[in-house]
């Protein structure tokens, strides 16, 4: 795989004001890079900041601090107008196939929007391009004049994919593109995305809370917890050499088809709820729920770096990373001062 | 040769599949609503009456402002009741009430449509801007809406007309400039929730600017309540115009208009019932038809709303 960096996220923070004077730290200092041609998976629980990070990457939100660099250009400071040409290169596929399509506009006009906005094609030329796109994503081009309400969820998501691909972007940020769909439809959309990636040399950032989906599509996976990346690794390594206790807990929750394996394998059930993002824990954000937490976990924040004998490709934010084969189910946190 | 191929293409190509827009569906529902359709027929009759008012003059031979002091008034100088010459009777100056009602429809409909159009355009644009742009724009516009809604409309109208003198333009402007606030408030509320929808974010991610998002993406989604409100606003405006006329602030005489006719009939209640009844009926039937049609439109455009 080439290691050309297409998008670089450096120490990005995004805070939202609340009605009281507190702020919600949705993204609390994230750094990562997206390589050309790869699919970077981004997983985490609901509310961990995945979608916010995605919107920061696409400059739909202004970041509170930090920078997002696309092809060497910092896009966080760009005005809406200066951002316009870059919009062609960075596109977003949204989670909700019902909410992301305007119910009052015809599908042809929705998919043709990118051409209209960037003054690329009009009239019959636009119609032809739109129908080509519809065919490309597996829609019947004759449905050009229909309204979104006349399509099923899977078809609507195909419309979203067609719209995102209209301008042949370099980077497509897929924000939970299949979470709202039936499992059988999920596979269709994922395969469609994979085919399109091959055909158009696309780079994906693929966000999901479903590890099995992310595992299937990603070259590398970043695991997020409460606004931070806790582990970032090539997909195989993340599963075979899991370093972070939170990643291990997520993996143990994956359903397994074989009941015998399912019974015998390690079950890690995290205590408590995900802490509030308005008032995150000191030190390691996971220490309140971590089976291996020690006193220094609560005092200091572990940096995201290569641990044990891992390469730079595999980074973990943990003072006490897991070794292969280590049993986490019997671990007991020790937060008392000795 | 090419023509032949094209012919074959046309024959082979299945008919393009045309989606039915929410608007078309609503019109379809509306057409099944009997009350609304009857009301629409009545409205169309009134419109025809206004357009072809000169026909009434041609048939009866009475111009609207001609005073028949000899045959149109009793020897005591009182209005004459309905008879073979004056089908709906005459007014205090011996003018034909039927012809004047037909000409009066022109004023009512003209004011009703133009003033409503002004109201809706101002209301939609300001409501969109307030709801979508937010921030300082919203604060200023929302306060302006509150101010306009709390101004005693009739008092200001009376004061204004007494300064400028009564005319059609002033009536239309006064109504237009004071009624937009409620439209703006409705639109603003809708836009506030639409603004957070994902399709707006999708448009932004494609590089669309504020103007495009407001008018291409958001506006079509607020049109249903706007259309409903518009049809219900027309009768209100017609009554307002009649009210202004009744108070002597409408059109300068001798122009025929319903409010003015009702006003001048005041002294003849006991002696000439036709003088107040027929202009009053014209006003009542018109506003009732618009209101019933407006109810039908509301039901058609929002099938979820309860019919209460």
From TrEMBL, chain A:
SUPFAM superfamilies reported in the protein's UniProt record: P-loop containing nucleoside triphosphate hydrolases
Keyword field contains Transport: yes
Pfam families documented for this protein: ABC_tran, oligo_HPY
Keyword ATP-binding: yes
Domain ABC transporter: 7-251
Gene Ontology biological process: peptide transport; transmembrane transport
Keyword tags: ATP-binding, Nucleotide-binding, Transport
InterPro entries in alphabetical order: AAA+_ATPase, ABC_transp_ATP-bind, ABC_transporter-like_ATP-bd, ABC_transporter-like_CS, Oligopep_ABC_C, P-loop_NTPase
GO molecular function (one): ATP hydrolysis activity
Lineage: superkingdom: Bacteria
PANTHER family xrefs: D,D-DIPEPTIDE TRANSPORT ATP-BINDING PROTEIN DDPF-RELATED, TRANSPORT ATP-BINDING PROTEIN
Family, per entry: Belongs to the ABC transporter superfamily.
NCBIfam families found in the cross-reference section: oligo_HPY
Protein name: Peptide/nickel transport system ATP-binding protein/oligopeptide transport system ATP-binding protein
Organism: Kribbella rubisoli
Automatic annotation (TrEMBL), chain B:
Record localization: Cell membrane
Residue ranges the record marks as coiled coil: none
Gene3D superfamilies (alphabetical): MetI-like
InterPro entries listed in its UniProt record: BP-dependent_transpt_permease (IPR050366), MetI-like (IPR000515), MetI-like_sf (IPR035906), OppC_N (IPR025966)
SUPFAM superfamilies per record: MetI-like
Segments traversing the membrane: 35-59, 109-133, 140-161, 167-187, 222-251, 271-294
Alphabetic keyword roster: Cell membrane, Membrane, Transmembrane, Transmembrane helix, Transport
One biological process term in Gene Ontology: transmembrane transport
Entry annotated with the keyword Transmembrane: yes
GO cellular component, one term: plasma membrane
Keyword Magnesium: no
Superkingdom, taxonomy of origin: Bacteria
Residue ranges of domain ABC transmembrane type-1 in the record: 105-294
Membrane topology: Multi-pass membrane protein
Family: Belongs to the binding-protein-dependent transport system permease family.
The protein's name in its UniProt record: Peptide/nickel transport system permease protein
Natural source organism: Kribbella rubisoli
């Amino acid at each position: 795989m080439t290691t050309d960096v297409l998008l670089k996220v450096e120490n990005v923070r995004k805070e939202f004001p609340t009605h009281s004077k507190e702020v919600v730290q949705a993204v609390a200092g994230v750094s990562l890079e997206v390589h050309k041609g790869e699919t970077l998976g981004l997983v985490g629980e609901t509310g961990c900041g995945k979608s916010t990070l995605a919107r920061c990457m696409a400059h739909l939100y202004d970041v509170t601090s930090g920078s997002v660099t696309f092809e060497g250009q910092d896009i966080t400071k760009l005005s809406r107008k200066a951002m316009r040409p870059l919009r062609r290169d960075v596109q977003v596929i949204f989670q909700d196939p019902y909410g992301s399509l305007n119910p009052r506009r015809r599908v042809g006009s929705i998919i043709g929007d990118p051409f209209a906005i960037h003054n690329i094609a009009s009239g019959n030329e636009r119609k032809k391009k739109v129908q080509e796109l519809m065919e490309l994503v597996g829609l019947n081009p004759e449905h050009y004049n229909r309204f979104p309400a006349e399509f099923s969820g899977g078809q609507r998501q195909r419309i979203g994919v067609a719209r995102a691909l209209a301008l042949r972007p370099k980077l497509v940020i897929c924000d939970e593109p299949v979470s709202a769909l039936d499992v059988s439809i999920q596979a269709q959309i994922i395969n469609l995305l994979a085919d399109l990636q091959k055909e158009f040399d696309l780079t994906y950032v693929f966000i999901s809370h479903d590890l099995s989906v992310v595992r299937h599509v990603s070259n590398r996976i970043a695991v997020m917890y409460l606004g931070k990346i806790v582990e970032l690794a090539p997909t195989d390594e993340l599963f075979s050499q899991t370093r972070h206790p939170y990643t291990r807990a997520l993996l143990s929750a994956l359903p397994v088809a074989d009941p015998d394996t399912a019974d015998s394998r390690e079950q890690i059930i995290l205590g408590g709820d995900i802490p509030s993002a308005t008032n995150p824990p000191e030190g390691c954000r996971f220490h309140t729920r971590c089976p291996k937490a020690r006193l220094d976990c609560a005092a200091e924040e572990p940096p995201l770096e290569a641990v044990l004998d891992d390469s730079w490709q595999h980074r973990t934010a943990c003072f006490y990373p897991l070794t292969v084969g280590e049993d986490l189910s019997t671990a007991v946190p020790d937060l008392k001062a000795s | 040769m090419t023509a032949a191929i094209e012919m074959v293409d046309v024959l082979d190509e299945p008919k393009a599949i045309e989606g039915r827009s929410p608007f078309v569906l609503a019109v379809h529902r509306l057409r099944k609503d009997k009350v609304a359709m009857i009301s629409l027929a009545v409205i169309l009759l009134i419109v025809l009456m206004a357009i072809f008012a000169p026909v009434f003059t041609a048939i009866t031979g009475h111009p609207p402002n001609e005073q028949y002091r000899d045959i149109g008034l009793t020897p005591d100088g009182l209005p004459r009741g309905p008879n073979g010459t004056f089908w709906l009777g005459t007014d205090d100056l011996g003018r034909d009430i039927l012809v004047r009602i037909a000409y009066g429809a022109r004023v009512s409909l003209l004011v009703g449509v133009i003033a409503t159009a002004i109201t809706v355009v101002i209301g939609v644009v300001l409501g969109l801007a307030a709801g979508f742009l937010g921030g300082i724009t919203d604060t200023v516009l929302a306060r302006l809406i509150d101010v306009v809604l709390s101004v005693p409309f009739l008092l200001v109208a009376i004061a204004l007309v007494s300064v400028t003198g009564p005319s059609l333009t002033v009536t239309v402007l006064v109504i237009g400039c004071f009624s937009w606030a409620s439209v703006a408030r409705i639109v603003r509320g809708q836009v506030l929730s639409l603004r957070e929808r994902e399709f707006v974010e999708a448009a932004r991610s494609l590089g669309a600017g504020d103007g495009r998002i407001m008018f291409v993406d958001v506006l079509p989604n607020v049109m249903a309540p706007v259309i409903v409100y518009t049809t219900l606003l027309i009768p209100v405006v017609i009554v307002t115009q009649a009210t202004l006329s009744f108070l002597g602030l409408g059109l300068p005489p001798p122009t025929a208009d319903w409010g003015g006719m009702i006003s001048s009939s005041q002294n003849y209640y006991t002696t000439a019932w036709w003088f107040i009844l027929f202009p009053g009926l014209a006003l009542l039937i018109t506003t009732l038809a618009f209101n019933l049609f407006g109810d039908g439109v509301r039901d058609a455009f929002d099938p979820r709303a309860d019919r209460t």
